[in-house]
Give the backbone structure.
Amino acid sequence: MFGTIPRVLWEKVAPPDEENRIQLRINPLLIRLGGKNVLVETGMWDRGGEKFEQMYALERDETFFRGLRDVGVEPDDIDLVINTHLHFDHCGRNTGLTGEPTFPNARYVVQKQEWHDALHTHERSRASYIADTFMPIHEAGLFDLVDGETELLPGLSVLPLPGHNLGQQGVVLRSGGQTLVYVADLVPTTAHAPYPYVMGYDLYPVTCLEQRKKYLPQWFGEGAVICTPHDPKVAFATLHETKRGFELKAAED
Ligand SMILES: [Zn+2]
């Protein structure tokens, strides 16, 4: 998860287990805006079987659907699903156990580039794409492919953030003078905020670095609240300047 950064440095912020695994979480985000329910990310694929579950030591506590229900939102109530990209740990519950769309009344938004790349994988990208999680959405005609920065609702936009792969997008919400950014795997956890902390998983690590240098100062300047997709503890963070660029600390409220 930390690419070329030596373990002696990263183990302080992300202590590994005996298999060298670290604690990560899947952090989908519900946005309620203008009477619409928008879901960013749909969580980890849950049909991989025992070997898959053991390899990643998955702990499933079912907070995904319960979290929605706690605020009175049923799967049928979701109007918009934003897939930051189509890796199985981000769009895993686009579909349900029998392959049906989990959110049948939603449009699913993904970048055109990402859709192309999901259909044209190579040896380095193939393991991340599981057709079960996106082909049924395509077949049901629920995908809206967007090309570049696009405003989906007033104040709510998607923004290309290449590096992890080519077609990844983040989500930017500007409302009431405040900015919230869902950064996707550009910065997978708060521990990844320093510029060189780029993942070994990234297909284009230098592009990832360039995108960080482009956007982190901008979001810092806006005082944006940052949501990372995999932080094990922190859901909402803010940027703070350091010698190496920035760090992310839990937001105050
Ligand atoms: Zn991820």
